[in-house]
Amino acid sequence: MAVNEVKPAEPKIKMKRSIIDVDIHNYTPLDVIKQYLPRAYRDQIDLWGWRLPGSLYLNGGIKVGQMADSVPPGGGFPGSDLNFMREQLLDPYQIEYGILTGSDYSCQASPDLDYAAAISTAINEYTLEHWLAKDSRLKGSVFIPKQDPLQSAKEIRRVGSHPDMVQVIVSSGAEKPYGHRYYHPIYEACVEHNLPFTIHVLMEGVGINGPNTGAGYVSYYPEYRASRPMVMAAHLASFIYEGVFEKFPTLKVVLQEAGVFWLAPYLWKLDEDWKALRFQTPWVKKKPSEYFRSNVRVSSQPLEPTPNPETFTQMMNAVYADEVLMFCTDYPHWDFDSPVRAFPKLEDSLWEKIFYQNAADLYGLPARGARKEGAK
Question: What SUPFAM superfamilies does this protein's entry cite (predicted)?
Answer without folding.
Answer: Metallo-dependent hydrolases
